[in-house]
Inverse folding.
């Protein structure tokens, strides 16, 4: 490697240090530069976070790698790189397991013997993370490549330092992290991070960073399964109340006669069974944040009392004639259209405007592009640990299926699909190999046929003409509903929203009924509509 080539490659990165670039783009350019200097089949940049290494950028590795976490104690190669004073190259016969086994693109199954090296990146005299390089050919790397990587490491460290500091200024990332950590220690529970890199997700993070430090009431709205609770946790973690408690109440899970007591508390004798005084959620959240999930389910009578607390900060327990003050920041969430509920008279307009001081929409998964693969990587990692496997990966065709699906159940649906697919793949293989690959059939998301085959259509027509008109129409309706359910993976709400199917040719002038619920005798086995209040 000549000095001229090193300088030619490094100069654009030096120029980038003075530019305001997204961290992902800055890291991508860094990996492009290192592959120009040292030709490799796969490179990765990982940040050290406690006992974990988190991939920030990869090239040549499966896209779901970005959603994974590597525990340093479980990967001796990564541990050796962190401990080494400079770049380190591993002998092909060293015998240490490779952390990317099953993750290198265009390699199916176990990763064969190959060449790999890497180095630790140090920022402000502290180990920040790792830069790793893999080549599929034995002896691809040379001793001079170690010297090149050593020279490049300082520039790489400056790049990640610039990205880190710009992120801190733009999103107060470091402050949010500290507050989130204090909240997790205070609440005694861990939470999933808000993972994603799409434009829609970055816009959501900017909104959270903007409204979090304020004391505005926030109304989080979005489809079911998008992760509204995680957004609320992030808002609390970004607030000045992060060191205090976050109290949650699911308004849809309580009987109407208990909602008021749960919110405001009660005194002894307030009602039958009130044998002692009890604090409500507002009292428990005093000084912190109160999260009202599915706030659209609150009865109108309770809505009026909630409005008074929000306006005046004065709380009166059920059965008491005394008021006391509480200092609570309220964050609410709903999957309903509250504006429509107001027009229908089921929700108070004044409370709606009070809750919506800062409305925050959580984008559905179908608007987040390749975030699907990043989230799938996180769920694959969770299932790998749960099932005791060495690694779980997605076949390229399976990745394409995930990207093509419209995800009516959003992130929650993706989590369940990955969990089921891991079990199916394990059952299909029948033994625990080093690498378990999920194929498209494991996902259970195959698209329904675009049109009914001609032979099947002919059989349907013959069947209909041999039946009385009423029976033929009902049989056709049943087939139309079954086809709609298949097209929407058994989701009755989605099938209904798609509208009625085609009418029977003998039913012109009659109202189409294919979208109506089936009689119990018509329903397909296993296709019962969900019970009221259930989620998919």
């Amino acid at each position: 490697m000549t000095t001229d080539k090193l300088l030619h490659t490094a100069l654009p990165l030096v120029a980038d240090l003075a530019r305001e670039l997204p961290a992902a783009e800055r890291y991508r350019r860094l990996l492009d530069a290192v592959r120009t200097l040292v030709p490799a089949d796969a490179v990765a940049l990982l940040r050290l976070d406690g006992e974990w290494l988190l991939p920030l950028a990869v090239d040549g590795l499966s896209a779901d790698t970005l959603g994974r976490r590597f525990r340093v104690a479980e990967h001796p190669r990564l541990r050796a790189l962190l401990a080494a004073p400079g770049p380190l190259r591993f002998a092909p016969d060293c015998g240490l397991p490779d952390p990317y086994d099953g993750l290198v693109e265009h390699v199916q199954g176990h990763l064969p013997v190959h060449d790999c090296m890497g180095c630790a990146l140090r920022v402000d005299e502290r180990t920040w993370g790792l830069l790793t390089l893999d080549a599929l050919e034995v002896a691809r790397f040379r001793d001079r490549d170690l010297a090149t990587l050593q020279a490049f490491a300082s520039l790489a460290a400056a790049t990640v330092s610039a990205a880190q500091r710009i992120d801190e200024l733009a999103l107060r990332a470091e402050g949010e992290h500290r507050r989130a950590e204090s909240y997790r220690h205070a609440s005694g529970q861990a939470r999933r991070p808000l993972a994603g890199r799409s434009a829609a997700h970055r816009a959501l993070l900017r909104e959270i960073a903007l409204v979090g430090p304020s004391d505005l009431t926030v109304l989080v709205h979005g489809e079911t399964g998008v992760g509204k609770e995680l957004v609320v946790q992030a808002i609390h973690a970004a607030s000045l109340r992060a060191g205090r408690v976050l109290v949650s109440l699911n308004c849809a899970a309580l009987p109407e006669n208990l909602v008021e007591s749960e919110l405001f508390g009660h005194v002894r004798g307030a009602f039958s069974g009130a044998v002692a005084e009890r604090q409500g959620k507002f009292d428990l959240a005093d000084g912190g944040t109160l999260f009202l999930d599915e706030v659209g389910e609150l009865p109108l009578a309770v809505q009026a009392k909630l409005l008074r607390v929000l306006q005046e900060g004065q709380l009166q327990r059920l059965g008491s004639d005394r008021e006391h003050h509480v200092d609570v920041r309220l964050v609410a969430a709903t999957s309903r259209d509250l504006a429509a509920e107001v027009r229908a008279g089921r929700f108070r307009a004044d409370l709606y405007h009070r809750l919506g001081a800062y409305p925050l929409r959580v984008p559905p998964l179908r608007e987040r592009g390749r975030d699907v693969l990043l989230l799938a990587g996180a769920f694959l990692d969770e299932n790998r640990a749960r099932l005791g496997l060495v690694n779980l990966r997605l076949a390229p065709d399976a990745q394409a299926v995930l990207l093509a699906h419209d995800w009516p159940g959003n992130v929650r649906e993706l989590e369940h699909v990955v969990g089921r697919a891991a079990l199916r793949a394990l059952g299909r293989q029948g033994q625990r190999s080093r690498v378990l690959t999920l194929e498209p059939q494991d996902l259970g998301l195959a698209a329904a046929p675009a049109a009914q085959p001609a032979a099947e259509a002919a059989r349907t027509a013959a069947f209909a003409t041999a039946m009385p008109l009423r029976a033929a129409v009902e049989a056709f309706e049943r087939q139309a509903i079954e086809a709609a359910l298949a097209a929407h993976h058994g989701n009755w709400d989605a099938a209904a929203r798609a509208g009625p199917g085609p009418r029977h040719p003998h039913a012109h002038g009659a109202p189409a009924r294919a979208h109506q619920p089936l009689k119990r005798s018509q329903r397909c086995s296993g296709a019962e509509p969900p019970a009221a209040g259930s989620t998919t």
User: Anything to note?
Assistant: Residues 3-171 form a domain with the Beta-Lactamase fold (CATH 3.30.450.40). Confidence is low (pLDDT under 50) at residues 170-189, 448-467, 501-536. The longest helix spans residues 143-171. The longest strand covers residues 126-135.
